[in-house]
Fold this sequence. Notes:
The chain is α/β, with parallel strands linked by helices.
Amino acid sequence: MELRHLRHALALAEQRNFARAAETLHMTQPALSRSIQSLEQTVGDLLFDRGSREVTPTALGELVLRHARGLLLAAEELERDVQLARGLELGELRVGVGPFAGAALVDVPLGQLIQRYPQLRLAVVEAPWQELPGRLQRREIDLVVATVHQLEGQAEYEFLPLGDHPTVPLCRTGHPLLSGPTPNLSDLLRYPLAGPHLPEEARHQLFRQMPPPLRRSTQEHLRQAIVCDSSAMLRNILKQSDALTLMPLFIALADLHAGQLQLLPLPALNVRGCFGVAWLRGRTLSASAQQFIQRLQAHDQALSEQEQVLLASM
């Protein structure tokens, strides 16, 4: 019984269709059919019922698939341990990030890593942060870069905190609010507020960090009119409109230096974003993961220093 046949059977069970499964496996449909038939010949019975609309596992198929998942996971862990022993040159690193702050933190460290080790295989999995812990559990990724509230304190993860970064109000250069006196809450309410999707706990955490008077008025009046989980897209939306946002300062540093975005002259919000990197507890970090974390920490520190310089100059 070959592992590749088991892998093909799992894909077919997930897709319930030969054509879709073959596409996900990057192989032709006839080749997939031959692979499944070969596995069924090895087992000695049908593993799938071929219906007119979909393909479904038989009772024997469910049994084989249940064992196949464990066998494939064990094979992947064996391959990973071999890569650990061989070091960085021929290793692999899979990093999971959310599309907002996480993606903005990892690009420089990953670029530095592949520049130093060009034979290293890198995979960046950008997904909604709610999906990343599950991918970590299934060993689809090795590390997750996320905010503290998403992963800290959960027993199944090791968590290394990074620095915290000020969250600041931003608008486009030339925004009407920049030409008059310091805006108040009523002024802000005339314009759409943009930002990422925030779960209730993260929203409450954001409000708890604000000064009490601002917290009460913000909770009562402010609602996001534009929800966008891509920080790059959100910055472009700001540049083309009068929308406002709250964003970790490091994400907008390049746009601020280029004069495309500006900080709104509001009282200090005292809101900070805390980030970190996590991995499964008890799982040995590969050499590439350790190198990435070192570069991530250095990059995070450099961003903090740039933020301090920018804020001091204003």
